[in-house]
């Protein structure tokens, strides 16, 4: 697997709807061969708008996209045979059966896998004779996936592939995605499930309001987030009685009732020194909770900052 080769290159990408609303505002990233890159984001962050440009479904309003060295929109014929696309809405005919749907797609796909193989891969073999309209939401997602991987694509785009699946279906899809990746398929995944990105992605980006708010490997993104320590202040104690917070590597704190919440990028030092202090003072830190930074923390911080910014903007508009 040569991950030095960039299969996808996105530079300062922009997408404007209706001549005024900029849904994608200067997004840049690259994806190496065989990598799984996940795009996460708050609702309306611009994930689908970005991925559609990579799939060549629309031209960018600005910037550049290269997929396998070509412009996916103007050179669609060169790119399309090598990519697989699983959209949020497959748009299948509800009257066709599962097998007929796959056969129809196979007819438009060069070098398609045998229908049985595609259905077996997504766990739909026993539903082959069922009409699409009778499938559950999760089964429809599996059919979408079967069609996306029919042509053994070099690059696979998965737009929220596990939405609507139960826990077992989700695990099975993850297993399949891992297998595809192991055989060298490059995957771009959009998802709302943080554990999906954490478990599958080599690298990820969290989009917010059309821009990349944070990017890196899951470990890098997680490590950049503060860890948290919270506990109840012992009776008769005040925050000022604790050792100076800055000396513990605490970067922020807040109180809620008697509970104090601390943020730190040096979890081990902060936790050790607090416990030593409590031991010496002979007090118990009730409800002590120590939590490492997580992808969820990164995501929530971005969403929180976003809502604070939009509240401030609304306030400014009210005052004006
Ligand atoms: N065809 C369109 N015309 C106008 N605005 C659009 C259009 N498609 C999307 N938008 C807007 O662009 C923004 C980004 O939408 P997009 O679907 O790309 O976000 P997303 O990150 O995929 O969201 P979600 O997680 O909710 O699917 C949203 O504000 C959306 O309302």
TrEMBL record:
Domain of life: Bacteria
Keyword Acetylation among record annotations: no
Main location: membrane
Transmembrane segments: none
Subcellular localization, as worded in the UniProt entry: Cell membrane
Bilayer topology term: Peripheral membrane protein
GO terms assigned for molecular function: ATP binding; ATP hydrolysis activity
Domain ABC transporter: 8-234
Name this protein carries in UniProt: ABC transporter ATP-binding protein
Lineage summary: Bacteria, Bacillati, Actinomycetota, Actinomycetes, Kitasatosporales
């Amino acid at each position: 697997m040569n991950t030095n080769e960039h299969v996808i290159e996105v530079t300062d990408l922009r997408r404007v709807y209706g001549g005024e609303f900029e849904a994608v505002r200067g997004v840049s990233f690259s994806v190496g061969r065989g990598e799984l890159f996940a795009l996460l984001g708050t609702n309306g962050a611009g994930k689908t708008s970005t991925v559609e440009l990579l799939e060549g479904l629309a031209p960018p309003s600005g910037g550049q996209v290269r997929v396998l060295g070509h412009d996916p929109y103007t050179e669609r014929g060169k790119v399309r045979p090598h990519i697989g696309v699983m959209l949020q809405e497959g748009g299948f005919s509800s009257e066709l059966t599962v097998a007929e749907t796959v056969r129809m797609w196979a007819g438009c796909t060069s070098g398609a896998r045998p229908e049985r193989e595609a259905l077996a891969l997504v766990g739909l073999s026993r539903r082959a004779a069922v009409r699409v309209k009778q499938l559950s939401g999760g089964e429809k997602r599996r059919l979408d996936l079967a069609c996306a991987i029919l042509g053994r694509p070099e690059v696979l785009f998965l737009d929220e592939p596990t939405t609507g699946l139960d826990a077992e279906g989700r695990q099975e899809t993850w297993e399949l995605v891992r297998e595809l990746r192991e055989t060298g398929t490059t995957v771009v995944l959009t998802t709302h499930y943080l554990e999906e990105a954490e478990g599958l992605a080599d690298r990820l980006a969290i989009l917010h309001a059309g821009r990349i708010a944070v990017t890196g490997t899951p470990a890098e993104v997680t490590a950049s987030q503060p860890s948290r320590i919270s506990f109840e202040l012992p009776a008769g104690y005040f925050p000022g009685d604790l050792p100076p917070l800055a000396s513990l590597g605490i970067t922020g704190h807040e109180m809620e009732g008697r509970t104090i919440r601390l943020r730190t990028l040096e979890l081990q030092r902060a936790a050790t020194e607090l416990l030593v202090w409590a031991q010496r003072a002979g007090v118990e830190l009730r409800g002590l909770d120590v939590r490492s930074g997580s992808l969820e923390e990164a995501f929530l911080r971005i969403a929180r900052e976003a809502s604070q910014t939009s509240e401030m903007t609304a306030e400014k508009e009210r005052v004006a």
